[in-house]
Amino acid sequence: MKPLGRQSDYEPPRESFVAVYVDRSATPDVVRAAAACVPLPSGIECATVDDTLFTETFDCRVVVYLVGDFEPAAGPPLARRYAAELSGILGCPAYALNDLLRVDPPPE
Hints:
Elements: E1 16-23, H1 28-37, E2 44-50, E3 60-68, H2 75-90, E4 94-96, H3 97-102
Antiparallel strand pairs: 1-3, 1-4, 2-3
């Protein structure tokens, strides 16, 4: 433990996460197998597949959480790269959650 007078030198451990959503055409078991083949990007400590969503989110039912020690600004690019690699293995779309939230609705 650092002395109180030197707190400016102390950096607490950071734990950040980003989410990658997978198109509903992929089953949880297939996503797990594909996620095991994608190398973890630098700064990512684990990838966890969650298939407990009760509803579809942006037409997706399975999400992969990427957890690690990275700056918040680095999260979206990490998720995009991971989503692209995962999508290539799965043969179906995978999206960084940040990108799904930023998509403008189609004009009526």
